[in-house]
Write a structure and sequence with these properties.
The chain is built from 9 helices and no strands. By secondary structure, the chain is mostly helical.
Length: 174
């Protein structure tokens, strides 16, 4: 007997895992790196994963108790992904906790700053300035325009669809 049958995954957790997988797939699009100059480094990938997770959390904000639960499960999937990535990079067990604490602090700082910048849309200046601080060398105007488009695309989708893990991302124009 498998553990999956003894402890089935709750639907909200499964949906959050789908959201996280979709955010990661979108953040790995080559056009973000080659076309928009995002650094193809662990730090650059962290920034883009964080951006996409924050965009989803921003969409879920204010959506009621189920949206809060989905957002929390999404954040937990994100943390699990970071932990796995650190281990794949060869970070030892004794150091993972310290690095995760730093990444968690960085996430909260980014999330707060992105949320404020997203509230100022359609004006892109705050978003572009934030990206200039976190994505050194990137085409921040293009990335800010993409993030604004992604925000509008997510806002145009039914909240229920997103809470079920079915977020759709816009195409990336480089």
């Amino acid at each position: 007997m498998s553990f999956g049958r003894l402890f089935p995954t709750r639907p909200v957790v499964a949906a959050a895992r789908r959201l996280y997988a979709a955010a990661v797939a979108q953040a790995r699009q080559p056009a973000l790196y080659a076309g928009m100059g995002a650094p193809d480094t662990p730090e650059g990938r962290f920034e883009l994963y964080t951006l996409h997770v924050v965009l989803l959390l921003h969409r879920l904000k204010g959506g009621g108790p189920q949206a809060v639960e989905t957002g929390q499960a999404l954040f937990e999937a994100y943390l699990r992904g970071l932990d796995d990535a650190l281990r794949e990079l060869g970070v030892g067990d004794l150091s993972v906790g310290k690095k995760m604490r730093k990444l968690g602090e960085a996430f909260y700082g980014r999330a707060k700053a992105y949320d404020q910048a997203l509230e100022s849309l359609p004006e892109h200046n705050a978003l572009q300035a934030l990206m200039g601080r976190t994505l050194e060398g990137a085409d921040t105007a293009a990335l800010a325009a993409y993030a604004a488009k992604a925000c509008r695309t997510l806002d145009g989708q039914a909240l229920e669809q997103i809470m079920e893990g079915g977020a759709q991302w816009p195409p990336i124009e480089s």
